[in-house]
Every structure is written in C-alpha cells, then in structure tokens.
Amino acid sequence: MKKISQKTIQDLEFHVVRDQAAAYCVTEDGKAAMTELVPYRGRENILKELESTHEYLWSFGSEHQIPNHGFDAIDRELQLLDIDNSTLEKEGIRRLAHLPRTVNKHIVFFKKLQEQFPRLQERLEDIPMDKSIPDRVDQVLDRFGEIKDDASPILKHLRAEMNNVRGQLNGSFGQALSHYGQLGYLDDIRESVVENRRVLAVKAMYRRKVKGKIMGSSKTGSISYIEPERVLTLSRKLSELELEEREEILRILKELTDFIRPYIAPLEEYRAYLTHTDLISAKAKYARKIKALLPMMVEHQELDLVDAYHPLLWISNNERGEKTHPQSIRLAPDNRIIVISGPNAGGKSITLKTIGLLQLMIQAGMLIPVHEKSRVCLFEQVLTDIGDNQSIDNHLSTYSYRLKNMRGFLRSANEKTLFLIDEFGTGSDPELGGALAESMLEELNERQSYGIITTHYTNLKMLANELPEMTNANMLFDARSLEPVYQLQLGEAGSSFTFEVAQKNGIPYSLINKAKKKVERGKIRFDKSIAALQKERSNLRKNNEKLRDKEVRATQKANKLEDTQERVQQKLEDFQELYDSYQKYIQLGKKFDQLASDFDKNKKKKLLLDELMKLVITENVKRRPPKKKVDKVVEKRQKGKAKQVENEVIQKVERIRSEKKKNKAAPAVKTPEKPKDILKVNDRVRLTDSKSVGTIDQIEKGKATVNYGFFTTLVDVDRLEKVGK
Fold first, then answer.
1. Does the structure show a pLDDT above 70 at 396?
2. pLDDT tens by residue, 576-586
3. CATH: 2.40.160.40, 1.10.10.10, 1.10.1420.10, 3.40.50.300. Which one for 150-256?
4. Number of continuous H segments (helices) and E segments (strands) in the chain
C-alpha cells in the first residue's frame, strides 16, 4: 500500500480525529504517537490493529478489566543510562522499574485470558517476563520510592547510630530547655528551628548567661536563638553521620544504576509496548464515545457503508443537541463510481468526506460509527480533491491547482484506488471545463478505479446514466420548503434548484425570468424534469411516512383488541370450568342425597356401602386422564393382557382366602348351609366375602362373566352369590 498523502489527511480532517482521540491517551508518548498516526501499510497490519482495538473496546463491557498501562516519561533516564559512570536518582530508578512491572502484569493477565483477547495476547509473545529489575529495585527502594534501611549493612548501621544520636540530642536539648526555662531566660515561644537545628529562644538581655552558639536573632532583636553548648557536640556528630549516609546512598544508587544499564534494550521494548497499548486504549475509548464498531472486513473490492456517521459532525451536533443524519452508500465492481448532484448546502460534501474519513480511520486501525452489517475493503491509495486550494506562493489559480491535482490522479490511479472529488470540473468555463471533466472521469472509469464525485454539471450526470459501472445519486431536498433532508438517494441525478433557491433568498422574479431566457431551453427542461422527479419523490416519501405511521397505529390497535379478546375468552373459559365444576358437585350431592333417602327407608347398611363404593369408583374413573389413541390391534392386546392379570390376581386372592378359612377352627355348632340360588344373566351378584357388586353378562360351562363397570372378569358360578334387586 502507498503512503497516504498529508493533503488527503488535511482534506478529510483526519488530523482533527487524531487530536480528539489523543485526549484519551494517558502517557505523553501515547499522545505524541496518536497525533502522528497515519494509515498503516499492509492488510495484515491493519487487521491486527483493528482486532486489537475491538478486543480492548469489548473489555469495557466485560468483567475482565485490562490492567493499567500508564507510565511516566523516561527519556532523561534512558539518556543517562547511555552515559558511562552516570548515576540515576531514586525517582528515575522507580520510573524505570515501573515499566517491566507493568508489562509483567499484562503478560500474566493476557496469558490467562488468551481466548478472550487473542490479538492483544499475541503482541506479548516476543516479550519475555523478566523480574530482575523490579526485584533488585525492591531490595533498595520501598513503595514510596525511599531508600530502605537495609539497602546495605553500612547504611543500616549508620541510620541506627543516627537514631541513637538524635535521641541523645533531644534529651540534652530537653534538659537545657528545662534548666533555662526555670531560670526565666527564655521567651514565651521557648524554642525554634534555625538551619534545621533546634535552638533556644533566649531573651536578648540573658543571651550572655546561656552557654552555646548564637544562631541568629529575631527581627526586633528581642530574642536570640542559641544552640545549647551541651548539644553542639551531638549536632556535629549527627551532621557527620548524615554526610556518611548521603555518600552511602549515592554509592547504592550508582551500583543500582550499573545493574540496570545493560537492560536499555528491554526497557525500550517495554516502553514501545506500553506506548502502543496506550494508542489502542485511546482508539477504543474514542470508539466508545462515537459508538463505533468493527465492520465486516472483506478481501475483494467492496465498500458498503450502512448508516454511516461523520464522527466530527456527530460529536459537534451532540454537543449542540442537534440530530445527525446517517448515510448509506455502496461501491462494488458493478457500481464503482457514484456521481452525487443536488443543491448547495444539501450535504454532498459531508457525504463525500464521511466516506473518505471513515476509510482513513479503518486503515489507521480505528473503529468507525456504522451499522454492524457494513462491509469494508482496503484501498492501496486514497486520492482527494476537496475545497479551494489556491496557492499564492506558486501563482496557481483554483483551476490550475485542480488540474495539477488531477494530473497526479491520472498518473497513479488503478483498480485499488479510491478517489474523492468535490465540485468536479469547476473553476473554468462550464462548457469546456465540463467536457474536460467528462474525459477525465471516463479515464478513471477505464482504469477501474473506485470513487465518488459531486457536481452540478449536466453532462456528468448524463455520463453516469450511460455507463453501467457508474451511478447517479442526489441529496434529497424538500421542494416546498427548499430545505435539505440530508439523505442520499441512489439511482437518479438531483436538481440544483438554482432558480428556486434564488427566489427563496429574495432575488426579484423578473431577474430570474430574464436569467431563464438566457439559458438554453434543453438545460432548463432537463433541470425542471429532475426537479419534478425530486418533488414527486419528496411527496412519495412523506406519503410513505404517513402510511407507515397509520399502519403502526392500526397494528397497535389490532394487537390491543386481540389482547382484550384473549382475556375475555380466558375469563369465559374460567367461568365455564367453574360452572361445570359446580354442576358436577350438585349432581354428586343429589346422588348422595338419594342414597341417604334410600337408606332412611330400607335401613340396609350393606346396600348403602355397595352403592357408595360404586359411586366412588365411578368418580375415580372419571378423574383418570383420557387414554391415548392407539392402534386397535395394540389396544386389544393390551385389554387381553389386563384381563389376564386381573383374573390371576382374583384367583390368587380367592386361594389365599380359602386357605385362611381352612386354617380357622371349626365352629361348635354347624350352621345349616343356605340353599344356593339359581343364577341367570343380568343378575346382580358378588363374590363370597366381597362387597363389590357386578352384573352377569354370560354364563357358560359353570363360568360366569361378571361386569363391574370399569372391567369384567370370569369367575366360577359356585363362588358367586345373588344380591337383591
């Protein structure tokens, strides 16, 4: 990829975006790198940078917060390390030790979460974890950046002796303070500090009676500051110890500097990594501000931006509380060049700059404010010709400058070029300049370049209609209010609304008519046709919006009615269930009432129990869930198996009962056996010693088929007894 020119960066205001993003950097190195940021070269480098920024942006909304990457400026420290026998100050050493300590935290963090941050982790693959500098510095400096007492045995001994001397000094000074205070030689303030030493505040009249060294006096001369004689010796000793301490600290710092000196290259590598991390972090924070994302990146030449916003305009309008209109535009092999026309102040230039600025941002590794369905490719070069670039120094007019610029376009344009030209062909005679612009546009089309131009020239609009790879587009304009809509419409050219805008701005109608007569009829007719089409489109758009609003309201009403109907239907079903339930209980109550009435008449408890049993069994059968529909053959088999099991169960029960009867002792007096009843079909019978009553359906060969309502069984006739009617 070719280097993007500084002119393109200025034309598309990419430098303003860089300055805004630089405010999110936390290091001076990061800010400097951001203000000098230019689009990267090579597809792989661009994709890595985009994915790294995307991962960092994702971390803001996740539970995995990336560790801090900030560090202080270390230029001076690195320069000193390059000088032999130089010694760093403790603050400089602390700054240098912060770099490997921070990078080590990043290595641990991204290694643990490499699945969530693959690109960010990949940046650390060539940076080994090294704790040499942090561990060595921690042996010398505490967390506040001060030299530790045990940094060396000599320093430890010196500081212990200094503390002892300070204790003696304070004790001696206290004795002198008490002694001369009792004598009344001291002023009300009693003591002070001069040249970092404690002194007695002695009244001037008694200064000769106090033994010691006069360190000064007050402004009025009423107080003399005297260091007592008894502490002078201790003060001298303390000064000597402090001097030895400074010399030992200097020796320790020099030794530590010599230890760090061989690590200049790793420190530069740590610095570069953290600076780049600051750059990525700032891009992610800026993306969050403008609600940007990573669109789909495609390898073939296709640029399909959906709901794209100009970031600078979006921020500016948000601060003023105004709405920003997004644009959607597509460039592809079958639609490589778009010619945008329409009135001035309609948004043509902003649309042009939006496309170009977003392309530069993508190729600089920055996320862009578009819809997630957008598709973006990479271009080898982005060429721009925007604005009036007169050059007084070079004696170039606007048109001369633009011709010189177009010469550069024609030299380098190819199938991987994106060109953006505002007001193409202006600056010269409309007829001649339009013809030259048409020839240049045809040449760019033959080179299969991709581009967007804005123009008022009719011949360029007609050329876009004739060539299949070119498309006309216009910025929508409200023909009634003559106000821009700021929406790009593909497929048709736009009218400049020259005379309409002039009339709105107070130009006399007579002058407008005179101007119309001076223009060829064909041009006026063409412009009128375009204007009429735009008016029609504007009306259709308004009608569509009204119909859409009505449709939404009708849908809302229908949904509301449907919800109401569902609630009413549910209530009706609930009432029906409640009514059926009450009816069931009423019928059940009537049956119980009838049983009670019958029992009251016949006083037959056994009959009552049998009827109650039948009633309970019947109710239980009703409560069972309905049987699933199965194949008739399968159903017959299931019924046969059920009957077989029932018969076996009944036979076993009868066998057990008969065995129990045999084991019982015979009664003293035998009761005469009752004569057996002759049973016939439809008789109500029950098994001996059983309360369940059934009806005989069939009698054959001493066997009776008894129907109990919910099942039937085959029983010996001898085991049945007849029940009353």
1. no
2. 777 777 777 78
3. 1.10.1420.10
4. 21, 19
